[in-house]
Amino acid sequence: MADLTNDIRLAVDSGKAAIGFNTVIDSIKDNTAKLVIVTSKNKESNLEDILHLAGVAGVKVVKFEGNPVELGSVCGKPYSISVLSVIDAGHSNILKD
Q: Contact at 8 Å (CB) between 7 and 56?
């Protein structure tokens, strides 16, 4: 998980990410999302919507093994984040398998 957290932080700091349910949905719909990261603490209906749209768009979804407060901290934000999409990886290796 350490590599994932480092890559998330680097992608947010040096690239471009959409944070929050509505902006992530928009990034999937307009084909700019390259990867979606979700926490297990999401409304079931929101998670289903994201998984469905990402599946249709062919966008990989990764589960973050932490809660939204921890993901917010990883992103360097003073608030909870339950879902984000990576639009531009910047200097991170997050999009490499």
A: no
Q: What is the pLDDT of residues 76-90, one digit of tens each?
A: 999 999 999 999 999
* Domain coordinates in residue numbering, the chain: 2-88
Contact 76, 12 (CB under 8 A): yes
**Alpha-carbon dihedral 22, 51, 55, 62, rounded to 10 degrees:** 100
Architecture, CATH, for domain 2-88: 2-Layer Sandwich (3.30)
14-62 per-position pLDDT tens digit: 999 999 999 999 999 999 999 999 998 888 899 999 999 999 999 999 9
Strand order in the sheet with 35-39: 16-19, 83-88, 35-39, 60-64
SS3 content of the chain, % helix, strand, coil (to 5): 45, 20, 35
